[in-house]
Specification:
The complex is a heterodimer. Chain A is α/β, with parallel strands linked by helices. Chain A is built from 14 helices and 15 strands. Chain A has a single domain, classed as Amidase signature (AS) domain (Amidase signature (AS) enzymes), CATH 3.90.1300.10. Chain A is 37% helix and 16% strand. In chain A, the strands form three sheets. An eleven-stranded mixed sheet of chain A has the order 1-3-2-6-8-7-14-15-11-9-10, sandwiched between helices. In chain A, helix 2 packs antiparallel against helix 3, helix 5 packs parallel to helix 6 and helix 7 packs antiparallel against helix 14. Chain A is globular, with a radius of gyration of 20 Å. Chain B is mainly α. Chain B is built from one helix and no strands. Classes of the chains: A alpha/beta, B mainly alpha. At the A-B interface, helix 9, helix 10, helix 11 and helix 13 of A face helix 1 of B.
């Protein structure tokens, strides 16, 4: 069921918010083995649902998210509900305030049923959390769901919630979307407030939704975007409506297909599904333009360097508590502390030049289309993956196509494009120029309508 | 501050050394003009 369908049924009195929340809580219990949740707030959710049902009966309608069950990655501060950031360091942290995004979604009538499991400190992609247990991929429980918003991807894919709010610093919304077969929106840096969210990469962090459809993600973006005086990266911009029309078209849209990097050494099924999607896009009237993408490999290096430095700076007050940080994250934090100031600063100088090159690329195309990940979800505990005859680190390979986007600050929409022969999802990534989320949603919806449905 | 054990530190240092080697080709391309000023937030130029 989509948010629009649930909304129609709520307003036609075919179902109540209480029933939607009960269904959601039952599904969370049914799927407990996936370990997608750290905390379930069933009683609180049911109380909210009663109030929101009452409001609808009295004629107060908060809009499309009224009465819709959702959940937040555990790095969002939620007032009175512990918010751990997937870390032992914050295992007992109970915020006194909600994050701005949490407030905005509550105002829009969404109902949180709990807090989602994630990679520790949002610093990794396996979501095999050493303190709260590994999140499992609903398509194959022996596989990772991706991360760091792994609980969000798993819970949305099973249908237990309509929306899993995530965060994306180097692909942490788009990677679980790719591995779990969901839609994920990583907004333009500054589009969505980060206030009240644990930080990781100060110039890279973005907040956004994982959903089952493009329209659902657009509905969430309508509720959460906009200036926030408490986050100096956000900007005053004219209000935008992101939900695409039903008859949206790709006619005349200039879709960029990369000549370099993104189509080299892919899992054969991922490659076949990507090529099939692009043929479909052309059939739908898109203009396919082959482009040289400015140094994606260099961009990833700048992304790694930036994040290593920023995460070590953010976590500096906690670095003496080594025993309370898992081995993989501790290793990355150690690396970050060894990075020199000149390395970090020179990386920012290169970053400036790369931004200009990327912005220039968008004079020639409207949207760059890449696979979301070169391979389907690896197994839990798998340290390396061999693709195209080359063995690569699982984390670096999984984030290879998504990490650089955060360096430039651009928006990107991940959506599923089919299943591999082993019935694992593969996805597309649509990257647009700054503030072009509306166009990405329109293109995404047009493609979604034409591509094979990916549903458990 | 608690220091990492020597073995873990050496491993981290080797990763950073390798990263530095890779970064060198990029740092060689940095233009010397005033446009190379440091700006940290990618949102800035998109406003």
């Amino acid at each position: 069921m989509t948010i629009r369908e649930a909304g129609r049924r709520l307003r036609d009195r075919e179902i109540s918010a209480v029933e939607l929340v009960r269904d959601s809580l039952q599904a969370v219990e049914r799927d407990a083995a996936l370990n997608a949740f750290i905390t379930v707030t069933g009683d609180q959710a049911l109380r909210s649902a009663h109030e929101l049902d009452q409001e609808l009966q009295e004629g107060k309608d908060r809009g499309p998210l009224h009465g819709i069950p959702i959940a937040f990655k555990d790095l969002y501060y939620t007032r009175g509900v512990r918010s751990t950031n997937g870390s032992q360091l914050f295992a007992d942290f109970v915020p006194e305030d909600d994050a701005t995004v949490v407030q905005r979604l509550q105002t829009a009538g969404a109902i949180s049923v709990g807090k989602l499991n994630q990679h520790e400190l949002a610093y990794g992609i396996s979501s095999s959390n050493p303190w709260f247990g590994p999140v499992r991929n609903p398509w194959d429980p022996e596989c990772i769901p991706g991360g760091s918003s792994g609980g969000s991807g798993a819970a949305v894919a099973t249908g237990s919630i309509f929306v899993g709010m995530g965060s994306d610093t180097g692909g942490s919304i788009r990677n679980p979307s790719a591995f779990c077969g969901t839609v994920g929106m990583k907004p333009t840096f500054g589009r969505v407030s980060r206030c009240g969210c644990f930080q990781l990469g100060l110039t890279l962090d973005t907040m956004g939704p994982l959903t089952r459809t493009v329209e659902d993600a657009a509905i969430v973006m309508n509720a959460i975007t906009g200036f926030d005086p408490q986050d100096d990266a956000t900007v005053l911009r004219p209000e935008e409506h992101f939900v695409p029309a039903d008859n949206v078209s790709l006619k005349g849209v200039r879709l960029g297909v990369p000549n370099n990097f993104y189509l080299e050494r892919l899992h054969p099924d991922v490659e076949a599904l990507y090529n099939s999607a692009m043929r479909e896009a052309e059939r739908l009237g898109a203009e396919i333009i082959h482009v040289d993408v400015p140094d994606p490999e260099g961009l990833n290096l700048i992304g790694r360097t930036t994040l290593l430095g920023e995460a070590a700076a953010v976590m500096r007050p906690f670095l003496h508590r080594r025993d309370e940080i898992g081995a993989d994250v501790r290793t990355l934090l150690d690396q970050g502390t060894l990075l020199s100031a000149s390395d970090y600063i020179n990386a920012q100088r290169v970053r400036r030049a790369m931004m200009a090159d990327w912005h220039a690329m968008f004079d020639k195309i409207d949207v760059l289309v890449t696979p979301s990940a070169p391979v389907p979800a690896p197994q839990i505990g798998q340290q390396t993956v061999t693709v195209g005859g080359q063995e690569e680190d699982t984390r670096l390979l999984s984030t290879k196509f998504v990490r650089g986007v955060n360096v430039i600050g651009l928006p990107a929409l991940a959506l599923p494009c089919g299943l591999t022969r082993e019935r694992m999802p593969a996805g597309l990534q649509l990257i647009g120029s700054a503030w072009s989320e509306k166009r990405l949603f329109a293109c995404g919806k047009a493609l979604e309508q034409a591509l094979p449905q990916v549903r458990l | 501050m608690q220091k990492p054990p020597a073995e873990e530190l050496a491993k981290a240092q080797s990763v950073i050394d390798a990263l530095r080697d890779q970064l060198a080709r990029l740092f060689d391309t940095i233009p010397s003009g005033p446009n190379s000023a440091v700006r940290f937030e990618p949102g800035e130029e998109q406003r």
